Amino acid sequence: MPTSPRISFLGCGSMNEAILGGILAGGFPKDRVTATVRRAERAAELRVRHGITVLAGSEDEAANRNAAAEADVLIVGVKPAGVRAMLTEVGPVLKPGAVVVSVAAAVPLELMEAALPAGAQVIRTMPNTPAKLGRGVTALSAGTAAAPASVELVRSLLAGTGRVVQVPEEQINAVGSVSGSGPAYAFYLAEAMAKAGAELGLEPELAVLLAAETLAGAGAMLAEPGADAAALRRAVTSPNGTTEAAIGVFADRDLPGIIAAGMAAAAERSAEITGELNAAS
């Protein structure tokens, strides 16, 4: 496009900052980005780290409205319980045709559309934190008034954060249980591997290094075109070997079932939060 759109981030916690970092790493011009935060100290930190305009609510009570008023794309990253109030606050100052993107888990499109002026273009996303390294996965679902060109604009902006997929909104909770929460599962596994390694006699620092680098390397292999997790696992699992012994224990204790139950709990909790948000409206 001849001129890059103006992007405003309302709230810049870990998820919105991850997206911000991915977008900037993809070459998006810093002078077209504004972010808002509550505290002046956090604003100063983000200015130094990213070189963008950051407005602090503690210094300017109109910070969110001012950032929203100039935005072509508004990325809302406040906690789910605060999304409705935020959209109600900034809705009256939005540009005609502005696109509002939510990264808040469990906040449905219907709630967002109800909080904004009629006909507002709304897109719901489910990103994950590897976005800041350009290795994230973001699923998006478009609202009833979101034009195809607007959806494509958001897709192109988020491309700097990693893979972007479009799904029906009813699949967002399932997506969240896989990729949204998924990095935490990998970190949990790394913690467990490192602890077990130390218990087997390794220096704790070495065990942490081995676990982290092993998971990072395995992830890189999975990211190769045509990679298949089951085939990669089988290639490492020699008959009657050490890896087969470990996999046998995992299977005997139903690790796949444990993982499935945990992911189901994540999806169910997301649905519960949606219900709570709707009940509060």
UniProtKB/TrEMBL annotation:
MF-aspect GO terms: pyrroline-5-carboxylate reductase activity
Reaction equation(s) it catalyzes: L-proline + NADP(+) = (S)-1-pyrroline-5-carboxylate + NADPH + 2 H(+); L-proline + NAD(+) = (S)-1-pyrroline-5-carboxylate + NADH + 2 H(+)
Residues involved in NADPH binding: 64
Oxidoreductase keyword on record: yes
Record-listed E.C. numbers: 1.5.1.2
Top-rank taxon, per record: Bacteria
Keywords: Amino-acid biosynthesis, Cytoplasm, NADP, Oxidoreductase, Proline biosynthesis
Role: Catalyzes the reduction of 1-pyrroline-5-carboxylate (PCA) to L-proline.
Stated family: Belongs to the pyrroline-5-carboxylate reductase family.
Entry protein name: Pyrroline-5-carboxylate reductase
Organism: Arthrobacter caoxuetaonis
